[in-house]
């Protein structure tokens, strides 16, 4: 009995089709059929019912399938264990990030690449909702996301930035005379905000909903710099991270939001059960050791 025979059998069982299974295994279809026939002869039972348009498992096939999967998983586990035992980390790491932040993600990835040059690193950009979905689905190993007061379900986090969310307006705007405004002050005012799905927009929508209204979004853009420019031209009140707005004090007046105070947190996040690959786990370990943040950036789990 050979591992490739078990792998081909599992592929056919999952695809219910020899051609698709062969494509998945990157071999010719006759080779898949021949190897499964050898496996059936060795076991003395047919594992697949080939009589219909769709391949189905026989009773013997149903019995063998979980053992075949377990054998393949055990071999992969042994390979990963050897890799980790010898310190050889290779493979691929998929990282995601929100559009704009002050986290030294390039520094983290460059340091990781120096230590593990054989690992392929990919970086994608999306809003926080999409990144969290891809983390949970295993499409990403880690991501920089914007979060609320608690860790998202199914994810562990290391907070790397925590700052107030403010209203930023042109210096001649009617709100510019205020040091702070309540969320209710924003009712019916034209606001300039990041799109839905971003952490900052989620905090705004939640606060407005609690106050009994839906924010009036006059302008929406994924680039905080564009939001700042629109506000500086007097087109509305931009909702921005405090440090980002204060860095543009020559063009914008930053006004605190209270009753309730809004805060935006950035976090390095990964699945609660951890990345499946040694490379992914090595990146998370490096991030936890090197990325600083408020309160020493302690790791927090969902539900805590």
TrEMBL record:
Q: Which domain of life is it from?
A: Bacteria
Tell me if Methyltransferase is a UniProt keyword of this record.
Answer: no
Q: Which family does it belong to?
A: Belongs to the LysR transcriptional regulatory family.
- HTH lysR-type domain mapped to chain residues: 1-58
Q: Which UniProt keywords apply?
A: DNA-binding, Transcription, Transcription regulation
Species per Swiss-Prot/TrEMBL record: Streptomyces blastmyceticus
UniProt keyword annotation of Cell wall biogenesis/degradation present: no
One Pfam family assigned to this protein is HTH_1
Coiled-coil stretches noted in the UniProt entry, renumbered to this chain: none
PROSITE patterns in the record: HTH_LYSR
Q: What is this protein called?
A: LysR family transcriptional regulator
């Amino acid at each position: 009995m050979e591992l490739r025979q078990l792998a081909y059998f599992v592929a056919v069982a999952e695809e219910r089709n020899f051609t698709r299974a062969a494509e998945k295994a990157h071999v010719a279809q006759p080779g898949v059929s021949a190897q499964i026939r050898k496996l059936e002869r060795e076991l003395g039972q047919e594992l697949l019912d080939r009589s219909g348009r769709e391949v189905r498992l026989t009773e013997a096939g149903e019995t063998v399938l979980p053992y075949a999967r377990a054998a393949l998983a055990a071999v992969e586990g042994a390979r990963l264990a050897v890799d980790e035992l010898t310190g050889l980390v290779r493979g691929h790491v998929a990282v995601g990030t929100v559009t704009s932040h002050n986290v030294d993600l390039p520094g983290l990835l460059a340091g990781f690449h120096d230590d593990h040059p054989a690992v392929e690193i990919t970086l994608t950009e999306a809003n926080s909702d999409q990144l969290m979905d891809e983390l949970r689905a295993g499409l990403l190993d880690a991501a920089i996301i914007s979060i609320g007061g608690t860790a998202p379900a199914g994810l562990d986090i290391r907070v790397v930035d925590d700052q107030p969310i403010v209203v930023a307006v042109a210096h001649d705007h009617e709100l510019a005379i205020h040091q702070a405004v309540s969320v209710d002050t924003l009712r019916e005012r034209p606001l300039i905000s990041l799109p839905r799905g971003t952490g900052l927009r989620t905090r705004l929508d939640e606060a407005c909903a609690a106050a009994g209204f839906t924010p009036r979004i006059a302008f929406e853009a994924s680039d905080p710099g564009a939001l700042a420019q629109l506000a500086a031209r007097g087109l509305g009140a931009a909702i921005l991270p405090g440090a980002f707005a204060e860095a543009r004090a020559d063009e914008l007046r930053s006004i605190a939001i209270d009753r309730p105070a809004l805060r935006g947190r950035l976090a390095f996040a990964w699945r609660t059960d951890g990345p499946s690959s040694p490379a992914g786990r090595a990146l998370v370990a490096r991030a936890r050791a090197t990325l600083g943040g408020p309160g020493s950036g302690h790791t927090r789990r969902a539900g805590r």
